Amino acid sequence: MRKLLLILMLLLSVCLCSACSTSEDYVQTPEVTSVVATKKPNSDGTYDCDLFRYRILEDGTAEIREFIGTSKYLTTVNIPDSLDGYTVTSIGSRAFVDRTIPHNISIPDSVTTIVGNPFRSSGITNISVSPDHPVFAVIDNVLFSKADKRLVFYPYSEATSYSVPYGIQIIGEDAFNNCDNLKSVSIPDSVVLIEDSAFGGCSNLAYIDIPKNVHTIGASAFERCEVLKEINLPSSLTSIGESAFSQCKKLTNITIPAGITTIEESTFSMCYGLKSVTIPDSVTMIDTYAFLGCDALTDINIPNSVISIGKGAFSSCYGLTRIVIPYGVTTIGEKAFSLCTKATNISIPNSVVSIGARAFSSCTNVTNITIPNSVVSIGEGAFSLCSNATQITIPNSVTSIEAYAFESTALTELTIPESVTFIGRKILDDCPNLKNVIVSRGSYAAQYCKDNGYPYTYPDANNDWLTN
């Protein structure tokens, strides 16, 4: 009887425990949305998780912004398919740039967007994706986008040459950036676009042939290709980006195709070996610093189609012996031809309205300058430091002469017409040979010379400024 009682008590306690457990199962717990809900973001709105800094995109997925780990104990970086519960779909343009990371990197199938080339200058030599990746593929250790037929990333290698596979249409942004072992690259006719900085910093690239179907070369595409001696630009080209060939120091000649309308900022700047440039009559604008520092240029023919020459466009072209600006140009930009120290002749057409600040400053071999009667304003220091200029003719169309316009020249005499209603400070300072400024009676120029101590006479005063 006693045993039976003990068994009954034991069964009762088990039932009570089961009832407690069952009641707890029905207690509703709050829904867990994401770890980020409890995380404090960085000042720029990003979050840190393990080896990565990421941001949340509008579609609720994650983009890796930066690798924040250390490669000390890693041999491979495996990019995760999720961070804090967010699916990783994108890798930002600077995620691995200039980061010391392991040579091997693996990209998951969840990543469908890679912005530019986020792996440049990172030391990565091997990259892998799954054979079934929906967007990307690796062929011979080079990363491609299947979606838009783009070469995304050429890892650093000891190879000196490479042939882009036929069928690729785009050489991506920074794709070969700083691959300093490459000496030659073969690009197939299927390529139509070479994006920004695609070959920038390939310091040993000596030759490249741009195929016949390329319509655009991006900004800085070949910048700092320091031994590039020759490049053939196809007639299909309609756009060459800023600094596209800047600092190609061994480039000796270039023919710009007829589809180009603007020579962009710094396109050929500091091409120190450039001796010959052919500019077609499709070009209407030569932009800022386009040929800055091309000191091997001795002559250049600017076509009549050009209407604007930008700031510093031919500045420091020390070898130019003559400057002929075509009829049609209305504006000569600031420093456009400054420091063209070997130029002995400057020809300014009757279409020019404005001469920019220091436009011809330090053209030390020019002796005679005629400003045409279309010019309204002469910019600050426009002809300053033209130390051998003995004669400058100012027409009746000029209304404004800015400060220092003729400072440090060899002028002995200057006529300032009555049309001038503004003159800046010190336009004739440090002109040791100056004997006389001819001005009209009662004119702004007469009062200016009187106020600033410049010797002056009137046209009917027989050059005797003491009797004025």
What keywords describe this structure?
single chain, disordered N terminus, Leucine-rich repeat, LRR (right-handed beta-alpha superhelix), elongated, mainly beta, 468 residues, eight-stranded parallel β-sheet
List the helices and strands and how they pair.
Elements: H1 2-25, E1 47-49, E2 52-56, E3 62-67, E4 76-78, E5 82-83, E6 86-91, E7 104-106, E8 113-114, E9 126-128, E10 136-139, E11 142-145, E12 150-153, E13 161-163, E14 170-171, E15 184-186, E16 193-194, E17 207-209, E18 216-217, E19 230-232, E20 239-240, E21 253-255, E22 262-263, E23 276-278, E24 285-286, E25 308-309, E26 322-324, E27 331-332, E28 345-347, E29 354-355, E30 368-370, E31 377-378, E32 391-393, E33 400-401, E34 413-415, E35 422-423, E36 436-438, H2 444-452, E37 456-457
Parallel strand pairs: 3-6, 4-7, 6-8, 7-9, 12-14, 13-15, 14-16, 15-17, 16-18, 17-19, 18-20, 21-23, 22-24, 24-25, 25-27, 26-28, 27-29, 29-31, 30-32, 31-33, 33-35, 34-36, 36-37
Antiparallel strand pairs: 1-2, 2-3, 5-6, 10-11, 11-12
Structure description:
- The structure is a single chain.
- By secondary structure, the chain is mostly beta strands.
- Among the domains are: 84 residues, Alpha-Beta Horseshoe (Leucine-rich repeat, LRR (right-handed beta-alpha superhelix)), CATH 3.80.10.10; 148 residues, Leucine-rich repeat, LRR (right-handed beta-alpha superhelix) (Alpha-Beta Horseshoe), CATH 3.80.10.
- It has two helices and 37 strands.
- Strands 22-24-25-27-29-31-33-35 form an eight-stranded parallel β-sheet, with helices on one face. A seven-stranded mixed β-sheet has the order 10-11-12-14-16-18-20, with no helix packed on it. Strands 1, 2, 3, 5, 6 and 8 form a six-stranded mixed β-sheet that branches.
- The chain starts with a helix and ends in an 11-residue tail after the last strand.
